[in-house]
Design a protein that fits this description.
Helix content: over 70%
Radius of gyration: 20 Å
Number of domains: 1
Largest sheet: none
Structural class: mainly alpha
Oligomer: single chain
Number of strands: 0
Length: about 280
């Protein structure tokens, strides 16, 4: 379920802005800890990884963050009126384009580090994923279909209420129907999760045999593209359907919100704008 679905991305991004101002300066350190827990770097690899993360963070802060300010300003204006699904999808396309630019820069910085990884790191990553996959399966596959649906509903309600405030019984009923009709299912989610992991691990192993940084960059970027868009027709159709449903669902719910709920959303968005302006100051 924790894919790049539009509703999750947009709402999680907006909710995350409340702690973004405090956490953003720490991203290189937090990113290193996360990567090291997954890969178990050697001392030399650690130095390279830290430098790559610092370079990427510096670029993102001064080149990319200002573009998010413009997106937030336009989203604030949109939040005060009824919206169409096409407008929601337009926001998603912009977010995806920003993610793409960030990944391109990250890959350029990461390629030399990736080429230095070896069997120890690959094995550690495979074991790390085994543990994470067990946790994922407990969260999304355990229990009866009704119990799994209820857990998904609770997460959706938390995201929406965190942005709009208290939801009405009618809005809760609407969200429950949307979750029940979702094209996503945990069995497909598990299969796609394993596909993406295998794809990345294969690219990491091949990188060590490559003598060209440019080839490694191209290979990693291709993995990223396949993470977003599965290579098989059925997978692509599933992602397209989920994305369209997410656009439809968010627009449908937003158009049921009260003036008070929209005011709350607007205030939060303006607070996020202030935080971003503080972060991009020299």
């Amino acid at each position: 379920m924790k894919r790049c679905l539009l509703v999750i991305l947009v709402l999680s991004w907006l909710q995350g802005c409340s702690s973004f101002k405090l956490g953003y300066p720490q991203l290189p350190t937090l990113g290193y800890w996360w990567l090291d827990s997954a890969l178990s770097f050697t001392d030399e690899q650690s130095l390279r990884a830290k430098e790559a993360l610092q370079n990427t963070h510096r670029w993102h802060r001064y080149q990319e963050l200002p573009t998010y300010l413009d997106l937030l300003e336009r989203t604030t204006a949109l939040s005060q009126s009824p919206v169409q699904a096409s407008q929601v999808c337009s926001v998603w396309v912009e977010v995806q384009n920003k993610m793409d630019r960030t990944l391109r820069t990250s890959i350029t910085q990461a390629a030399p580090v990736v080429m230095a990884l070896g069997p120890r790191q690959w094995s550690h990553l495979a074991r790390h994923w085994e543990v994470k996959n067990e946790d994922w399966e407990k969260e999304w596959l355990q229990g009866t279909p009704d119990e799994r649906l209820e857990r998904r509903l609770e997460k959706s309600l938390d995201r929406y209420s965190g942005f709009y405030g208290e939801l009405s019984p009618q809005q809760i009923t609407l969200i429950k129907a949307q979750v029940a009709q979702s094209a996503w299912n945990p069995h497909w989610g598990r299969q796609d999760r394993l596909r993406r992991q295998d794809d990345l691990l294969s690219a990491l192993r091949q990188a060590r045999q490559s003598g060209s940084v440019a080839q490694v960059e191209a290979s990693l970027y291709a993995v990223w593209q396949r993470w977003l868009t599965p290579p098989d027709e059925a997978g692509r159709m599933m992602v397209q359907k989920m994305t369209q449903q997410a656009c439809d669902n968010l627009a449908q719910l937003h158009n049921t919100t009260t003036p008070e709920q929209r005011l709350r959303a607007s205030r939060r968005l303006r607070a996020y704008e202030r935080d971003l302006r503080d972060l991009i100051k020299p």
